[in-house]
Specification:
This protein has 379 residues and is of the alpha/beta class. It has 15 helices and nine strands. It folds into two domains: 255 residues, Rossmann fold (3-Layer(aba) Sandwich); 85 residues, Tetratricopeptide repeat domain (Serine Threonine Protein Phosphatase 5, Tetratricopeptide repeat, Alpha Horseshoe). The protein has a nine-stranded mixed beta sheet, with helices on both faces. Helix 2 links the parallel strand 4 and strand 5.
Length: 379
C-alpha cells in the first residue's frame, strides 16, 4: 500500500547555500509519491526534516499542510526559524499536494460541484495511508498539526468536528464554513465534544473578508457557548491581510499559539540545566512524547556562562551537550571554544578537530567555520 514510487530533491540555489558552507544546491525537502488505494490515485507529499534529524534518534511532531505545494516553502521556513529560536519544537513538515481540492476538502456532494464530497475519504487517506507511511519511513511522534486555508480550512474544521483524534491541533485560515448552506455551522454545537481528554488547540483566522465575518463570528460564539474542556480556541481577524496574504502570519502566530508553553522563561533558564530539564519533562505529557532539552538551548546556557567568564560551568554544560548530542559537529566546536577561552589550547584543538571531521563526514553546515577555528588554535 505504501509503495515509494518517486524520490526527488527540491533545490534552492541562493545565498542560503553560502550559509551551508558548501558550494552547490541547498536541499529543503524531499518529494515522495505514494500510491493511495483509498483515493485510487498517486499522491505527492513534500517533506521537510529539521537539521538535527540526521544526528539524533528522537521523534518529531508533524505539521501537515493542505494545498501543500503552495504553502511548503514559506511554512517550512517559519518552522525552521521558530524552532532554531527554541520558541517551538523542531518539526517535520509534510505538504500534501492537490489533485482536486473541491473533491478532497468538501464534506458533502453538491450538484454545482460534481466532484465534491470526498472529505471522509480524505480523512481515511491520512489515517490509513499517510500516517503509516510516515511512521514507517520517518521518526514521527503522535503530535500532529493540520493547517488548511479556505476550502482547506473547511476540511480542517470538518476533521475537528468529525474525527478530532486525527490531529492534535489545527490552524484554520479563512475557512469557507458557508459551504452547503452553512453545514458545519449548523453542526458545531452538536459535534463539539464537552470534554477533550487530549488537549486540542484550534487557531482560526480571517483576513479583511467581510463576507466571511458573520459565519465565522457565529462559529466562534458557538465554541464559546459550548465551552468544551480541553479545547483551546482562538479567533483572530487580520484586517491588514486579504484572503491570499493571510496564511503566512496565520501559520506563524498559530504555531506560537499551539506551543505557547514551549519557550523557557528567563527564570527557568537562569536556574541552569536541571531546571531546564524539569521544564521539558513537564510538557512531555502535553505533547505525547519524551521531550528533552534541545541542543540549541543547552548551548545557549553554555554561552551564557562563557560570557560571564564562568569557564568551569561553561565547559561542564558543553560537555553535557556532547554527551547528549554526540553526532552534532556544533557541540564539539562550542566545547572547543570554551576550552580555548579558558586557556586549554590542547583540548580546544581536540574538540575543534572533532567538529571539522564530523562536519565533513556527515555534510553538516559550518564546516568552514570549524576549520578556521581549528587552524587558529593549531597555529
Amino acid at each position: 500500500m505504501y509503495k515509494l514510487l518517486l524520490t526527488t530533491a527540491i533545490f534552492i540555489s541562493s545565498i542560503i547555500t553560502a550559509l551551508a558552507g558548501n558550494d552547490g544546491p541547498y536541499i529543503i525537502g524531499i518529494s515522495a509519491e505514494i500510491k493511495s488505494e483509498i483515493l485510487q490515485e498517486n499522491r505527492e507529499l513534500i517533506i521537510y526534516t529539521p537539521a538535527s534529524y540526521a544526528f539524533t534518534n528522537k521523534k518529531y511532531p508533524v505539521l501537515f499542510l493542505l494545498d501543500g505545494k503552495f504553502h511548503f516553502h514559506h511554512a517550512s521556513g517559519i518552522v525552521d526559524f521558530l524552532s532554531t529560536q527554541s520558541i517551538i519544537p523542531e518539526m517535520i513538515v509534510v505538504a500534501v499536494v492537490n489533485t482536486d481540492r473541491n473533491k478532497d476538502f468538501t464534506p458533502t456532494k453538491l450538484s454545482q460541484r460534481p466532484q465534491s464530497g470526498g472529505a471522509d475519504k480524505f480523512m481515511d487517506f491520512f489515517d490509513k495511508e499517510v500516517f503509516p507511511y510516515l511512521e514507517k519511513n520517518y521518526r514521527t511522534s503522535n503530535y500532529r498539526v493540520l493547517m488548511g486555508h479556505s476550502l482547506g480550512g473547511t476540511f480542517a474544521t470538518y476533521a475537528l468536528l468529525q474525527r478530532p483524534e486525527l490531529f492534535s491541533s489545527y490552524i484554520s485560515v479563512s475557512p469557507y464554513l458557508m459551504y452547503d448552506n452553512n453545514l458545519l455551522i449548523r453542526e458545531t454545537l452538536e459535534k463539539l465534544k464537552t470534554d477533550y481528554k487530549n488537549k486540542i488547540n484550534f487557531y482560526m483566522t480571517v483576513g479583511n473578508e467581510p463576507n466571511y465575518f458573520e459565519t465565522l463570528d457565529f462559529f466562534a460564539q458557538s465554541v464559546k457557548t459550548a465551552s468544551p474542556k480541553g479545547f483551546n480556541f482562538s479567533y483572530v481577524k487580520r484586517m491588514d491581510d486579504n484572503h491570499g496574504s493571510s496564511p503566512h502570519l496565520s501559520i506563524y502566530n498559530g504555531l506560537l499559539f499551539i506551543y505557547d508553553d514551549w519557550k523557557l522563561s528567563d527564570e527557568v533558564f537562569a536556574e541552569g540545566i536541571k531546571a531546564i530539564d524539569k521544564h521539558y519533562k513537564s510538557i512531555s505529557k502535553t505533547y505525547g512524547s519524551n521531550i528533552v532539552a534541545p541542543e540549541a538551548v543547552i548551548n545557549l546556557l553554555g554561552y551564557k556562562y562563557l560570557a560571564e567568564e564562568n569557564f568551569e560551568n561553561a565547559i561542564e554544560v558543553f560537555k553535557e551537550n556532547v554527551k547528549r548530542y554526540p553526532e552534532s559537529a556544533n557541540v564539539y566546536d562550542s566545547l572547543g571554544e570554551a576550552y580555548e577561552k579558558s586557556g586549554d589550547i590542547k583540548k580546544a584543538r581536540e574538540n575543534y578537530a572533532k567538529a571539522v571531521n564530523l562536519s565533513k563526514k556527515t555534510h553538516q553546515p559550518n564546516y568552514k567555520i570549524y576549520l578556521q577555528n581549528l587552524q587558529r588554535v593549531s597555529e
